[in-house]
Design brief:
heterodimer; A: 3-stranded antiparallel β-sheet; 53% helix; B: 906 residues; 10-stranded mixed β-sheet; 28 helices; globular
Chain lengths: 118, 906
């Protein structure tokens, strides 16, 4: 597999909270659609992912951006007909980069002291 | 495995998505749906409902987004450039410019549409701002659903029945009813003059627990407590408005003592009520300067029938009003048993009477929401109904205007749709046009009402002013604008849909040569408008006539200059029943008569003028029932009631009453139908204590100007028959003050206090005590009158528009007729007849509807018959005449058509 270039990753930052949540949900391994839906709705307050349709459109967008891909779990798995989604190498890199970016932001925010009133 | 019905439904619903997307995504969508459904099933019914709501929302959002997405990608592929959103905005602006240009090109149409709609929605805004709080807003109390009114509808024959609850019952319920957490009483309004505070304060007497019961908190100082009921001072909670105005929010007043002007009573202000606090008493919905602690609110009453203001109770959690009602019935039943088996309960005769009243008029527990403004509610609904009808007429009118315009645009629309404009786009433009017209007019109406607000306020009856909201209230703006928006969608969309779905080829081929003698499409709309209009105008005219009739009606007394005083003749706050001492009453009268400006004064058990009749008895003789009222000397002189024959009572007849009586005219007529009124003098009437000689006959008194007179028998105040009904603590004094003079209440109080140590409990001008719809009848007559005029105006505009557009469409046909020899008057008749047909049919339908609605209207009008045939006929006639005038102008234009010009042009 080709290593994603830094420019490829940079051009996709920052990632929307909902998209970030999808990528994060897939970090541990492939998931079916509903698994992603649950994970996102549990972590992103006020998310506009209401159901299959909105989810599908988001996944399609991420797929076009080459961040995720469809996968088969193989004939041995129990639910073999169900489509699963997994992170691509680029997706994993973007997830890491966005995480680092957020962490830097968080550091800045915690270092800031409240303004003192004179 | 069979798919579940939900899955099958979902598959079917997927058809609203664009086909390419559906083909591509269906498998995954259904898969996710199945998983989500399994998850939802485990969460019971609520989870399942939630799941479906989300699923439907998801479908809708996906459908919209995907459509937009596809349009954008098509545009990009076609090389249109720009993103889909941008293209969309450009299209929107183009449409908007098109609409504005169109509206500007037909200023007559635009102006008519805007002005009529502005009128229609303007009256609604004005009225809603006044009644919104009364009808629609939640009550300003904590957990208002658990609050109930405990009512005793005693005087049911008045348009505004009294709802005060006898204190005995209030105390009984507070101590014994399990359904109630607590019971508070209050609501008797009184004016108190306090030294150094200028005009008298309007206070309501309340029990110490009222605020706590309502869940209201003082904003400064402290609330009343139970210990306060033993205080030697009178304790007051001021309204926040008064506190700010008079004391600049000073906290020092809580430690001061105030003296009542010309009296020994002292007052302490202990706290401040929250802003806009409303005492939940049906008799006092207005805003007050504060509340006064009623110290004996729950004391064992000495006079069981003593009316006690309103009672409010808080239900225990989970108890419904009907459960509480059941318990109240049981408790009151027990009280009645006690009253009938132990005649000495309080006072043998008084008690029996009280029990009778309770038996006749049961006590009811009603939710506070419907109890609070209960007396005003039907009347307010009448007004709301009238303005809603105006709005409906305005909407129909708007639809008619747009339809007429749409018809004149058929060709335009047909060309556009032949050139490829979608039907949706044509409808959308028409709706947008209507929305612009409606929203601009609504904004204009708000501006107008806001501007007129200040000058309108003094015209509005005081009790309404207190609960009105400012017209530029956010909630009102949202509600009215959304209603206008909806109206616009219907009024603009429906005609446009008709136009857009018209037969394109047919229209283009027919060119301008539409032939037909009848109005197409708009006719029945015009009929509906006429029907609504008749209903509205007839109803409004009957109400207005009724109010005007009241204005000029003789109630049997002269309202202006008449004051109603209530003066204690014992020491004011002692609870011992006094004895009505003739000489003391006479002394009080002497003092009142000696006041500057007083022309006459007379005492009575209660005043049959103004709001409600308090203490009276009934008499029955020769099949006639009537009032029996105890009065003093010069009573009728003070009221301004003409003495038709004989004389009034003399002073000595009050001191040591002989067997004399005075009759009202109607009583005399009832008793001796064949004698003239004056010949009744000298006749005799049997009463409980003997046979009385009639010494005088006076004009009929009506407690309300519009009421039917009740035959009345007047006895001396001190007659033994009156012993039960003459209050033992105070006397009512009718005072006539010379025109232009005012009664100096402070000075009078000082005199009374000096001589007898007695108090003026209440003083009011009778004119202020009239029930709501008799206050300012002129204002209300104007209100209903203008509603009628607006209705007519709207109908005229609609008619004119339809007739004018019809003539414009039929120019070719009319030209042919003229060239074939029709005369100008033929053409005029043709056009007018075409416009009149639906109006006449609509008016007939409207008359039938009014006839039916009259049964409800009759409850509000007592001066006129709600099915007065003359009014009906006149209204229908006026509407038809309006239609003729409205159609006349286009008819004349049609008759002047030059056939050669028309025929050559086509």
């Amino acid at each position: 597999m080709q290593r994603p270039s830094a420019a490829d990753v940079e051009s996709r930052l920052p990632v929307r909270p909902v998209a970030f949540a999808v990528l994060a949900a897939l970090a541990e391994g492939p998931l079916p659609g509903f698994g992603i839906l649950e994970a996102v709705n549990a972590t992103v307050p006020g998310s506009r992912l209401f159901g299959p349709g909105t989810l599908y459109r988001l996944l399609r967008e991420l797929r076009q951006e080459r961040l995720i891909a469809r996968t088969d779990l193989g004939p041995g798995s129990r639910d073999d007909r169900q489509v699963h989604h997994e992170l691509t190498a680029l997706g994993a890199a973007v997830l890491r980069a966005e995480g680092a970016r957020l962490r830097r932001t968080l550091d800045l925010a915690t270092r800031a002291r409240p303004a003192t009133v004179r | 495995l069979m798919p579940s019905w939900e899955e099958r439904l979902y598959r079917r619903l997927l058809s609203i998505l664009p086909a390419p997307f559906r083909r591509e995504a269906e498998h995954e969508l259904v898969e996710t749906f199945r998983a989500a459904r399994t998850w939802a099933l485990a969460r019971g019914m609520p989870g399942r409902l939630r799941f479906w709501v989300r699923t439907l929302l998801d479908l809708a959002l996906t459908g919209i987004a995907e459509r937009r997405h596809q349009r954008a990608s098509v545009a990009t592929r076609a090389g249109h450039g720009g993103s889909g959103r941008r293209r969309h905005v450009i299209e929107l602006f183009r449409d908007l410019r098109f609409i504005l240009r169109n509206l500007a090109r037909t200023p007559g149409f635009t102006g008519a549409a805007m002005v009529t709609f502005m009128l229609g929605i303007g009256v609604n805004i004005a009225v809603l701002s006044i009644v919104d709080r009364m009808l629609f807003r939640p009550l300003p109390y904590a957990e208002p659903d658990r609050l109930v009114h405990v009512q005793h509808r005693q005087v049911v024959d008045l348009p505004v029945p009294s709802t005060s609850l006898p204190r005995t019952v209030a105390t009984l319920l507070r101590d014994n009813a399990d359904a109630f957490e607590d019971v508070a009483v209050g609501g008797n309004g009184l004016r108190v003059e306090i030294e150094g505070l200028g005009p008298p304060l309007l206070l309501a007497e309340v029990s110490y627990n009222l605020l706590r019961l309502l869940g209201a908190r003082v904003v400064a100082g402290r609330d009343f407590t139970e210990e306060d009921t033993g205080s030697s001072d009178d304790l007051v909670l001021l309204s926040q408005e008064y506190w700010e105005r008079a004391f600049g929010r000073s906290a020092e007043i809580f430690t001061q003592t105030f003296r009542r002007s010309a009296g020994r009573q002292t007052y302490r202000i202990v706290g401040v009520l929250p802003r806009g606090f409303l005492v939940p008493a049906s008799s006092y919905p207005g805003r007050l300067d504060g509340v006064l602690l009623e110290q004996n609110a729950f004391a064992e009453p000495f006079e069981p029938a003593l009316s006690g203001g309103s009672a409010v109770a808080r239900l225990r959690g989970g108890i419904t009003p009907s459960e509480a009602q059941a318990e109240v019935d049981v408790l009151v039943g027990r009280l009645l048993e006690r009253a009938s088996t132990a005649p000495g309960f309080v006072d043998a005769r008084g008690d029996r009477r009280f029990a009778d009243v309770l038996r006749r008029h049961p006590i009811s527990v009603v939710p506070l929401r419907s109890g609070l403004f209960f007396a005003y509610r039907p009347y307010v609904w009448l007004i709301v109904g009238a303005v809603a009808a105006v709005f409906l007429v305005a909407c129909v009118n708007l639809t008619t205007l747009f339809l007429a315009r749409g018809r004149s645009r058929e060709r335009d629309a047909a060309i556009r749709s032949a050139l490829g404009a979608s039907r949706w786009r044509i409808v959308r433009i028409a709706i947008a046009e209507a929305v612009i017209v409606c929203l601009v007019s609504t904004a204009g109406a708000f501006a107008l009402v806001a501007l007129a607000h200040r000058s309108m306020t003094p015209l509005v009856p005081v009790w309404l002013q207190a609960v009105a909201v400012p017209p530029l209230d956010g909630r009102l703006i949202v509600v009215c604008s959304s209603v206008a928006f909806l109206a616009a969608i219907v009024a603009g969309g429906w005609p446009a849909y008709r136009t857009a779905s018209a037969d394109v080829i047919g229209i283009l081929q027919a060119h301008d040569r539409a032939v037909g003698s009848r109005l197409r499409g708009g006719g029945w709309l015009l009929g509906i408008e006429a029907a609504f209009c008749v209903l509205l105008v007839a109803g409004a005219s009957i109400t207005a006539r009724n109010l005007l009739g009241l204005l000029f009606k003789d109630p049997g007394y002269q309202v202006s200059g008449l004051h109603d005083l209530k003066i204690t003749h014992g020491s004011s706050r002692s609870n011992r029943p006094g004895v009505p001492l003739p000489h003391r009453v006479r002394g009080i009268l002497e003092e009142v008569r000696a006041m500057p400006g007083v022309e006459a004064a007379g005492a009575a058990a209660s005043l049959p003028a103004g709001r409600r009749l308090g203490s009276h008895e009934f008499w029955r003789s020769r099949g006639t029932t009537g009032l029996m009222l105890g009065i003093g000397s010069t009573f009728f002189q003070a009221l301004g009631t003409p003495v038709r024959a004989g004389r009034e009572f003399l002073d000595h007849e009050i001191d040591a009453p002989p067997l004399v009586a005075i009759l009202s005219e109607s009583a005399a007529r009832h008793l001796w139908p064949d004698l003239g009124g004056s010949e009744a003098v000298g006749q005799t009437v049997p009463t409980a204590d003997g046979v009385r000689t009639v010494v005088g006959v006076v004009a009929d008194l009506k407690s309300l100007p519009g009421e039917a007179p009740q035959p009345a028998l007047y006895l001396p105040l001190t007659a033994p028959e009156m012993a039960d009904s003459v209050p033992s603590l105070w006397v009512t004094v009718a005072v006539r003050v010379a025109p232009g003079r005012d009664l100096d209440i402070q000075a009078l109080n000082a005199r009374l206090d000096r001589r007898f140590g007695s108090d003026l409990v209440m003083a009011r001008a009778v004119a202020d005590a009239l029930p709501p719809f008799l206050q300012r009848p002129r204002f209300q007559a104007v209100l209903f009158g203008s509603v009628a005029v607006i209705g007519l105006l709207l109908a005229a505009v609609g008619l004119y528009a339809v007739a004018a557009f019809d003539v414009a469409r039929r120019r070719f046909e009319l030209g042919v007729r003229l060239s074939l020899g029709a005369t100008a008057s033929d053409i005029r008749r043709l056009v007018i007849r075409g416009a009149l047909r639906p109006v006449v049919a609509g008016s007939a339908a409207g008359l039938v509807a009014t006839w039916w609605a009259a049964q409800f209207l009759q409850a509000f009008v007592f001066e006129v018959d709600a099915r007065d045939p003359w009014t009906y006929g006149l209204v229908a006639l006026v509407l038809v005449a309006t239609a003729v005038v409205a159609a006349w102008i286009p008819a004349r234009r049609a008759a002047r058509t030059d056939p050669s010009v028309v025929l050559r042009a086509t």
